[in-house]
Amino acid sequence: MLNARKVKKTLQVIGLVLLVLAFLLLVPSANAAFPEKPIKVVVYTGPGGLIDISARKFSGIAAKYTDVNFVVENKPGAGGIVALKKVIQAPADGYNLYACTKSNIAKFVQVGGEGYLDALHWTAMLMADPECVITNRKLAVYEWNDIVSDAIATPGEQTWVGPAAGGLDHVTALKIWDKYGIDAKWIPFKSGGKALAALLGEQGVAYVGNPRDALGNPDLHIAAVSSPQRLEAFPDAPTFTELGMPDLENEFMWRGFALKQGTPPDVIAWYDDLFKKVTADPDWQKFWAKGGLDVVYIAEPEFSKLVAEDAKVFEYYLKKSDILPGDAVGFMAKMASGTPFYILSIILVCIWLSGSYMVHKSKYSAILGRVLVIGFFLIVSVLFLIQSMNFPSSSAVGPSAVPRLWIFMLIPLNLLLLYKTFKKNEEVAETGPRVDIVLSFIGFLIVYLFAMQVFGYFLSTFAFILVSLYYLGYRKWRNAFIIAGIWILFSYLIFYKTLYVPLPLGMLFENLF
Q1: Whole-angstrom Cα distance, residue 21 to residue 23?
Q2: Which of 91, 157, 266, 317 has the highest Cβ tally under 10 A?
Q3: pTM of the model
């Protein structure tokens, strides 16, 4: 008994020491001056993109005014959400700077992530890159007035090209069509470069982008630019104001930086001073002037107001183009949102619990038990299906496709099991319902969901498949590893790379990739 008390007391002391050490490590010293270590500039694209160039140029210019090292870290994926999560999962200490653009706001709205807007302190907008319409000089129609006339004469037949559906360029095209009464088709491409190649290949009559996209190719012609006056770098490009549409003179792509919400005021003040110096730097201004960009520093809260307005505009046009469900949604979508969904969930769970009680009182407990098990998975599948009705949807494959893929596999499988249960009721009565298997798998799922937060989707899913196969009595390890590996490869290529589903990497590996 004495030894047990000593051991208990020792463990308590060790636990207290560990808590103190953790507090000292995680909570920065009040007297620590910022910055004490290199700052990561987290970029949501791969190397070579314009925001990546902006981040690297900023890092180089900033070196004139501070001794701190800026390290550009590329975290592409899911339209900026992978990079965003890297920032918001890190401490709010100012050492992770999110390099962002207006296009990120469109993606946040598409995935229903308006909460992402509030997770960031919109620290600095550093430039405004005007939107424009670029055409192919080799086509018979390439001047703006001719494009409008052709579109009105052939409604629904004219095709425009650009990067992604629902992005800034697409929404800008929708605005232009609204103002001019144009009925045209938008053909999205994976990148702006591929869309420009399609324009040069005469697969469309117009491309929406930025003026610098036309540099270096004499066949590309800027038919109209969204600017109050002509750009010095592109003096031959007419403005929409000159073309009789002043409502389109202020469409632009902004680029800037954001910090995690909750960053200390002294850190924000340090950045504010640095951004002002970089904006006024002659090398910074000269570098961007040749592309027709307006170099301007807008800080919080003006930047936050601009972001909020952009979110509203994106939501309006994404709903109008059916990329997002509109306000007049169907019964299933209404049922998936808010209180109705939770009420339905409670009702279905109560029905299932009532069935559980009846099983113990029935002489057909074996059959009813199995039916109860199958019913549990059917209820879960139905609830997931209803909830997926509230996800963003469009003619293209979107976020709702992933849960529905699982649902449409689970429901037929459970119905098949239900059919076999009633067809072979005598065999079921002898073997029993094996509720232990269901309960074990529920436990596995709970552990799996927690493990995913630490080890990420890929590693946790791989382990979950192996453990599940072993528990079911499958002992062919080579085949088990092949099955798990194929599913992980499928998830990576289809979900992560093709559908841009932001599968969690996990806290353990977040800083490595």
Answers
A1: 5
A2: 317
A3: 0.64
